[in-house]
Amino acid sequence: xxxxxxxxxxxxxxxxxxxxxxxxxxxxxxxxxxxxxxxxxxxxxxxxxxxxxxxxxxxxxxxxxxxxxxxxxxxxxxxxxxxxxxxxxxxxxxxxxxxxxxxxxxxxxxxxxxxxxxxxxxxxxxxxxxxxxxxxxxxxxxxxxxxxxxxxxxxxxxxxxxxxxxxxxxxxxxxxxxxxxxxxxxxxxxxxxxxxxxxxxxxxxxxxxxxxxxxxxxxxxxxxxxxxxxxxxxxxxxxxxxxxxxxxxxxxxxxxxxxxxxxxxxxxxxxxxxxxxxxxxxxxxxxxxxxxxxxxxxxxxxxxxxxxxxxxxxxxxxxxxxxxxxxxxxxxxxxxxxxxxxxxxxxxxxxxxxxxxxxxxxxxxxxxxxxxxxxxxxxxxxxxxxxxxxxxxxxxxxxxxxxxxxxxxxxxxxxxxxxxxxxxxxxxxxxxxxxxxxxxxxxxxxxxxxxxxxxxxxxxxxxxxxxxxxxxxxxxxxxxxxxxxxxxxxxxx
Length: 493
Description:
The protein has 493 residues and is mainly alpha-helical.
């Protein structure tokens, strides 16, 4: 390792540590911050972001990059080098005052979103959201190498991905999902519904048990409550949140399992990568593959439903469900509904594709901020045959846009596609892995993921990690095949 490379990495590690500190302050904002601290917290986050941006765009970084002989670096060092170079070039393009303003406005927008969602009043939120859109458009135009500014934002979450690539894959997926839904949507009237009050303290106890079962290390993590479940942190400090609804424990349990997928990924990236560019999940698409395969392919499997049904009976007593088979059908009930995070596997990606299309139109200036509510409601009616009456059921249900996270939504569906491919490969490799889940045994699955996904951190390209793991090209077919097999068995036989 050359002296100049050591100097570069030492500098970057301090920047990454600041980014980690910023994420923890943002975590506190969502979980424990007093309501009256909103303005102060926004200033705090903006100041840290200003320092981070200054460090990333520092000309000394460029000089060190230019002075390093790339051929002298090993594979992992080269990966760090190119990540740093990409970050430097990106940050150098963005004026510090713009980066600072984005951080501040997004913080204020997030907190106004929380208020507006509770009160069903958009006036306060739209004031800040209009600024978020304008600032992100400025940023995207600076970063874009083409007329498609949306791709510049997408690249932040899924490197080298373009909307042109996604449009093609999503078109095929949408066709398959709609066909499946049409076959089964009117055949679910015999499926029972939960009708029980589930104690929130017991839910949280089960939530902690599930996280541990799926591999979450509480020595370097914790679970808290937030308005919108999320995971944050890396290395030896990775935190997750969930939410509680006394009438719907699945909201808590599957949110926890989902976020655990993210967290276990981060916790198992090799320690040698901590606070280096290689030391986090490689992309949001790959990240979502880890959360979705935990939540759906394993968490909503018939095998795991056997385990979860027994656990809930032990903790809650008789909650009105007669058998694990009935329980399995309740967990996998397909119905048109308003909330993305509560959607079944068939409808979930249709929720994402709608958001993806709206995002693109916002950044093409085909939809104005003032028109967003109507645009959402019209598209939702078309896709789900439901009239949106509450803003919290409509465009205010997700935190992402308030936080300026445009280009994030399509990675959920991309993650589902990756998860479909990974699930197929895991079963081909170890056909007993799924059966062991009914006994709460996830060791084989975790070991496979550690060996094929976690170990690389960000040292390989996203598509390479997935395609190498599955030993073939990535496509949407395994996901569609999995969904058809599962739901046709539930509804048509």
